Amino acid sequence: MILLVENLIEKQLHTEQVLLLVIFLIFLTALLFFSMTLFKKVRRIKKRRQKKLYQDNIDEILFSFLFSNKEIESILKSESFNNHINNPLYKRVAIKSIISLHNNYSGNYSTRLEQFYSESGLAQYSMEKLNSEKWKFVVEGIRDLSGMNYVKAYQKIQYLKDHRNSLVQTEALLGMIKLQGLQELFKFRKSSIYLNDWIQSNILYMVKKFNIPAPPDLHELLDSKNESLALLTIRLITHYKLVVHYDALFSFHQHTTNSRLKQEINVGLKKLEQIH
């Protein structure tokens, strides 16, 4: 009997110990989770404040360069620039600000921003992104460089048109067109790249925004086996109102079996007939 009681007491003690251990582990996990959450929040706040300081610094530098006619050499040698330029966060903030201003200014201001981007080392930072193993950074680099008309990046961007990631391929195409014009489409004549409506909308937007001229032999892309490229060509001929390619469109309508292409050609032919 005594032995039985001792066994029961021992089991109860063991159960209590296990329960205490479970409670302790739950408490420890909760404490760890709270600490990590707090740490991340503090780090985000610190980063936000740092970005604000960098933003103010960049704004002051850029507006001084644009509107006070300061020489770029004096700005690049200044402490306010040199103390931060090696910081990756500062570079990202600077590039974002420069591109934003570049999109809103034209003429001499736009040219000076391109000069600052090139000579400050920020263009080189964007070039380094093109070598990244992460496609997100490669896309960022292409957008930065093409957005700032950095023609020296053309060869590297062209190389990326055969990248294993389809988003990089798409961005490379957009970058090539931005830097060299629609003639670049001929390099995709035999490519299997699929130019969906989103991509085509981006190309048409660039054409309108930057007044990119049409290549004289644009109609030759209608013969491409890539039907999405043929569709884009039809839309471009329609956009440019190229009556000179009316016969090429009509002929293509006669022999293509793709119903979507036929429908798009019909729209184009009607618009060209109104001009004609």
TrEMBL record:
**Which superkingdom?**
Bacteria
According to the record, the segments passing through the membrane are 18-39
Q: What keywords tag this UniProt record? A: Membrane, Transmembrane, Transmembrane helix
What is the protein name stated in its UniProt record?
Answer: HEAT repeat domain-containing protein
